[in-house]
Specification:
One of its GO terms (molecular function) is metal ion binding. It holds the Pfam family Peptidase_M48. Belongs to the peptidase M48 family. Keywords: Hydrolase, Membrane, Metal-binding, Metalloprotease, Protease, Transmembrane, Transmembrane helix, Zinc. The chain has a three-stranded mixed sheet, with helices on both faces. The longest helix has 43 residues. The protein is elongated and about 75 Å long. The chain is mostly helical and 316 residues long. Helices cover 70% and strands 4% of the residues.
Length: 316
């Protein structure tokens, strides 16, 4: 049972201590894509701890499953896990972890269905405001996102991700922004669509709403909302310049407090994002990025190694 308790302890540490350290990391703003990777690895490690713990607990509770799991294993591997004779603890742990797994799947499914319904409703509203031409008159559709222009005096721009993604701008944005600023705005929104940021946001929201008391999931949701905007800003800045992207952010934010599809809870980010673009802090050195990437990948790897450690020890 040592591996089971070790996985549970590792999961608790990764759920409580690691998010605080990662949220305070000063390098995250300079490397938002790498920070997103680190957060995903952390969440995957926590889920792996739960999943592997469920497997070991179920094996302890069900001898038939234990025999199946260790079929073909060398002599001494099964005994190294100490699962025999722990049926009581195994049943309790397996029941709790299985309930958490079912709740996670239900929360994720609910979030996906809600997001799909919202997307369909927004597409329907967009089709009412900007209907497509009949099939015989429509131009051949190119690959990539379709640009839609809406009649509105307010400068706005947003994206509708998914199949048949749309990049939407208003006539107010066309009048307010210069050509380069408009290109930066579209590049920002295109970055959201092509990086599948909506998938990441949906998963983070599902975990945070399903387990509101688990700090790593709440922090993951909050950090994803900020980091995806920074990553999209960087994409636009690389193509059209930091100053141009910052000016576009100011122009389209004028009187609204919003840039692109930024949700309401992130309105206060806009001034900070402008300052960040204008300061233009350089990226981290390659060797530093490599070390951070390896450190991020080490968290899920540690969960797997902890699960197989008793078996490996028995073989050595």
């Amino acid at each position: 049972m040592t591996a089971l308790f070790g996985l549970l302890l590792l999961g608790v540490l990764l759920s409580t201590v690691a998010p605080r350290l990662l949220a305070r990391a000063s390098w995250a703003e300079r490397e938002p894509v790498l920070a997103l990777c680190a957060w995903q690895c952390l969440v995957i490690a926590v889920l792996l701890c739960c999943l592997l713990s469920l497997l070991l607990a179920s094996s302890a509770a069900l001898p038939a499953l234990r025999d199946l799991l260790f079929t073909g294993a060398p002599h001494g591997v099964e005994a190294a896990y100490g699962l025999a004779g722990s049926e009581g603890w195994g049943r309790l742990a397996a029941a709790l972890l299985a309930a958490g797994g079912v709740w996670t799947a239900w929360s994720l499914g609910r979030e996906v269905l809600a997001a799909r319904a919202l997307r369909d409703r927004r597409f329907a509203e967009l089709s009412d405001r900007a209907p497509e031409l009949p099939g015989g008159l429509a131009l051949p559709r190119r690959t990539g996102e379709q640009l839609v222009v809406l009649e509105n005096v307010r400068p706005e721009a947003w994206s509708l991700p998914g199949p048949g993604a749309r990049l939407v701008v208003t006539t107010g944005a066309l009048q307010q922004l210069s050509d380069r600023e408009l290109a930066a705005v579209l590049s920002h929104e295109r970055g959201h669509v092509r990086a599948r940021h909506h998938w990441l946001a949906q998963s983070a929201q599902a975990l945070a709403s399903g387990f509101p008391g688990v700090g790593v999931f709440s922090a993951f949701r909050d950090q994803v909302g900020e980091l995806v905007e920074l990553a999209a800003d960087d994409r636009a800045a690389r193509r059209h310049g930091r100053v141009t992207t910052a000016l576009a952010l100011v122009e389209i934010n004028n009187g609204r407090g919003v840039f692109g599809s930024c949700p309401p809870q992130q309105l206060a980010q806009s001034p900070h994002r402008v300052d960040r673009l204008l300061l233009g802090a350089p990226r981290l050195p390659v060797h530093h990025r490599l070390r951070l990437t390896l450190a991020a990948l080490a968290t899920p790897t540690a969960a797997v190694l902890l699960a197989v450690a008793p078996g490996l020890h028995a073989l050595l």
